[in-house]
Write a structure and sequence with these properties.
Helix content is about 20%, strand content about 40%.
Length: about 110
């Protein structure tokens, strides 16, 4: 019984020490506001135009076109490359990328 009390006391003392350490710190945080979407031609063939389509939680669609660059990569940042600014709805966003009318990648992300 005495051992259990000592362990409990030691645990409480340790928790208070951790709380004191955390209290003396000045915390900052970062939340990524842009979501990078990209596709890559692994063969690094001739340049191509990719069309990225993002479907927002409310069902509306935003589209961005971009030409591939170094290494066969075509990338955009959502929402800025789509001309969207300000507050966006929270939820699941679905995206797809197409090249020459063919969907080459699709996925979803949350905001």
């Amino acid at each position: 019984m005495r051992t259990a009390r000592l362990i409990t006391f030691a645990a409480l003392l340790g928790m208070n020490s951790l709380a004191a350490i955390a209290k003396d710190r000045n915390w900052q945080q970062s939340t990524e506001t842009e979501t990078k979407l990209w596709v890559r031609d692994k063969n690094e063939g001739s340049p191509y135009e990719a069309i990225f389509k993002v479907t927002k939680p409310d069902g509306s669609v935003a589209i961005a076109k971009v030409s591939s660059g170094q290494g066969g990569v075509a990338e955009v940042s959502f929402p800025s490359a789509f001309g969207l600014y300000g507050s966006l709805a929270h939820g699941v966003y679905r995206w797809e990328a197409s090249v020459s009318g063919r969907v080459v990648a699709a996925d979803e992300f949350g905001r």
